[in-house]
Amino acid sequence: MKALHPLEIVVRTAETGSLTATARALGLTPAAASAALKRLETELGARLFVRSTRHLRLSPQGEQFLPQAQQMLALWATAQQSAQGQAALGGLLQLSMPSDLGRNVLLPWLDEFLQQHPQLSLRLQLGDRLADVYRQPVDLAIRYGTPADSSLVALPLLPDNRRVLCAAPAYLARHGTPQTPAELVEHVCLSYMLADSQHQQWSFVRDGQQQSVTLSNRRMADDGDVVRRWALAGVGIAYKSMLDVADDLIAGRLLPLCPQWQGEAAPLWLICADRRASGVLAQALRAFLQSRLQARWLETQRVLDDAVSAGRGLH
């Protein structure tokens, strides 16, 4: 529907950072896509993107508008199915996702999604080891990090997500607060393992300069939820995906450390084996999750911005 093209332009450009790539995906010329975006901004009376010579990024107004745009597109997809006499979403959805993110963030949202689609059944696979979507009974997988297998279809859910350094107030009261990543070697750090490989090198960026710290961690687990629980218990410092600890940061159960140092990228993707799996159900689930993930990310980002403003970790 042409009336929704501007919304789709906003959503896709927010994902890719490129209006040219968006135009190509939608079968438009770059000039047409740019004109449609400008008309929408004029109608809204707000600039949705901050433009530079190399890329676009969402403005503060654009960050507020994006979840609503995603929801409107999802509603249109549902309305289109109904108008065309298509059956409601149904059947069995076999979904794989990380343990921590699944249990503590996505599970209640999936309950809501199932309530919206009563003919749909869910088989959930929780675990931090990467599911083999070719051999295992998995339709879709939610995973952090760009998949190494280029033959997989990877649909972005939250490309701007990053890791954040955090600890419980009780731990900091006993051991003090590290002011720079280099000071982590003096603290109890909680290590995550994947396929027996420990994530012992933590990297950060500040003012374009990268700093990596190699740690000899006393506590290690191959389950991200265990690492989070250790951090909440006050036994050490964790380096987690911001999404995994969003509620804890917002509630103050965990505090962000060294907030002026940006953590490693941890983009979140919806992955499937081929284009057939990226059909109506995948797109409906993607739109549903995107709006909620983006809102949670923005709320957590404000917590980190407040930490920087308050001067925690300014050294």
Compile the SSE list and pairings:
Elements lengths: L4 H12 L2 H8 L3 H15 L4 E3 L4 E3 L1 H24 L7 E7 L1 H18 L3 E7 L13 E5 L8 E6 L4 E5 L1 H7 L14 E5 L2 E2 L2 E6 L2 E6 L4 E3 L2 H9 L5 E4 L4 H6 L3 E2 L5 E2 L4 E5 L7 H31 L5
Parallel strand pairs: 3-4, 3-5, 8-12
Antiparallel strand pairs: 1-2, 5-16, 6-16, 7-13, 7-14, 8-9, 10-11, 10-15
Helix pairs in contact: 1-2, 1-3, 1-4, 2-3, 4-9, 5-7
Descriptive keywords:
315 residues, alpha+beta, five-stranded mixed β-sheet, 41% helix, 23% strand
Percentage of residues in strands: 15-25%
Overall, the morphology is globular
Radius of gyration: 21 Å
Please give the oligomerization state of what you see. single chain
* Average pLDDT level: 83
Largest sheet: 5 strands, mixed
Helix content: 40-55%
Our count of helices gives 9
Distance between the termini: 52 Å
The ordered string of helix (H) and strand (E) elements is HHHEEHEHEEEEHEEEEEHEHEEEH
**What spatial order of strands do you see in the largest sheet?**
4-3-5-16-6
The class by helix and strand makeup works out as: alpha+beta
Q: What are the low-pLDDT stretches, counting only 5+ consecutive residues below 50? A: none
The beta-strand count equals 16
